[in-house]
Each structure stands twice: as C-alpha cells, then as structure tokens.
C-alpha cells in the first residue's frame, strides 16, 4: 500500500500554515502591507533601532531578505534607516509614526486570525495544542538540514517486517 502523505501531521501543519498565511495576507493587503512585513514592524515595535543583522536574526531570515523588506517598508513610509552613531557603515532601522500607527491594525488582524483558527477549541485544547506545536517546532529545528534520515519510514518498515512471515522459520504445526 502506498504511503498516504495526506494523513501525516506535517501535511496537516503545512495545510494549516497555508490557510493561516492566506487569511493573514488578506488582512495585510487591506492595510497596504505584504506578508512578512508585519513581523518586521512588530519586531521593531518591541525593540526599535535594531541593526539589519539583528533584525534578520530576530526574524530567522537571511540578511538579503531583511534588506528587501526594510527597503519596501521605508519606501512606504513605515520605517527609516539611520546610520549607526558608532559605525556609519552600519544601519539601524526605526519605526516612523506611520509604522507605529500600523501596529494597532496588525495586532487586530493577529487577534482575529487567532480567534478564527481556534474556534471550537476550549482553553485546555489551546494550551495543549500550543505545547505540542512548540515541541514539533523544536524537533524540526534541531534536525540538521542535511540529515536525510526518513523518520517516518522506520516504524512502518518495522511493522511491515513483523507482519510478514519469516521464510526461514518453519510454521508451527498444530495437531
């Protein structure tokens, strides 16, 4: 029987992430933002004046990605880049008044998305789900990118091997 990837937790996670990105993207588009820009603005609202490399690290993305996002946000008037006082070659990113004003809309969108996503779940379910998702995230983050071991096939292969009669063994005869 063929492996049905649609029944895996990771497939469900990917589908859920796609749906959440779609809903979030609709809200951001109405605000004039692109997906991912909300994370830049929220990060700066928590710690304004980060360097580009600090921002990239905080967002867990590559520096060129941050450069592109910050350039767009600056062109839209949400952020501004200023040269570092200590090192003029290094730029720090700051929210503008427009950027600070956008935070309320971003927060509203995230709250609405959370409410929509968790409809029908009680507080106990939400707490358990959050804990399980954190564990899955830790598991996946800990695995090296070049590790190609197929963790899913190992238990299935063992189960299939147990289900198959061993040719070397003689069947037990019952009289």
From TrEMBL:
Q: Which Gene3D superfamilies match?
A: Winged helix-like DNA-binding domain superfamily/Winged helix DNA-binding domain (1.10.10.10)
Q: Which UniProt keywords apply?
A: DNA-binding, Transcription, Transcription regulation
The UniProt entry, under InterPro entries, shows: HTH_MarR-typ (IPR000835), Iron_dep_repressor (IPR022689), Tscrpt_reg_MarR-type_CS (IPR023187), WH-like_DNA-bd_sf (IPR036388), WH_DNA-bd_sf (IPR036390)
One function term, GO molecular function aspect: transition metal ion binding
UniProt keyword Lipoprotein, yes or no? no
Q: Does the keyword S-adenosyl-L-methionine apply?
A: no
- Ranges for the region named Disordered are 144-175
| Compositional bias (Acidic residues) | 144-159
Domain annotation HTH marR-type: ranges: 6-138
> Which superkingdom?
Bacteria
Q: Record's Pfam families? A: MarR (PF01047)
The molecule here is called MarR family transcriptional regulator
Q: Which organism is it from?
A: Kaistia nematophila
What does the record give as the organism's lineage? Bacteria, Pseudomonadati, Pseudomonadota, Alphaproteobacteria, Hyphomicrobiales
């Amino acid at each position: 029987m063929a492996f049905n990837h649609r029944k895996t937790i990771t497939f469900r996670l990917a589908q859920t992430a796609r749906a959440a990105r779609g809903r979030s993207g609709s809200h951001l588009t109405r605000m004039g933002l692109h997906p991912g820009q909300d994370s830049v603005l929220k990060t700066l609202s928590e710690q304004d004046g980060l360097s580009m490399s600090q921002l990239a690290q905080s967002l867990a993305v590559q520096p060129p990605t941050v450069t592109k996002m910050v350039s767009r946000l600056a062109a839209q008037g949400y952020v501004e880049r200023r040269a570092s006082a200590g090192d003029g070659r290094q730029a720090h990113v700051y929210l503008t008044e427009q950027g600070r004003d956008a935070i309320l809309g971003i927060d509203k969108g995230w709250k609405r998305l959370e409410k929509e996503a968790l409809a029908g779940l009680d507080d106990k379910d939400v707490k358990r789900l959050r804990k399980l998702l954190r564990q899955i995230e830790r598991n996946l983050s800990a695995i090296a990118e070049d590790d190609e071991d197929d963790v899913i096939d190992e238990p299935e292969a063992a189960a299939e091997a147990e289900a198959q009669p061993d040719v070397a063994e003689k069947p037990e005869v019952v009289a």
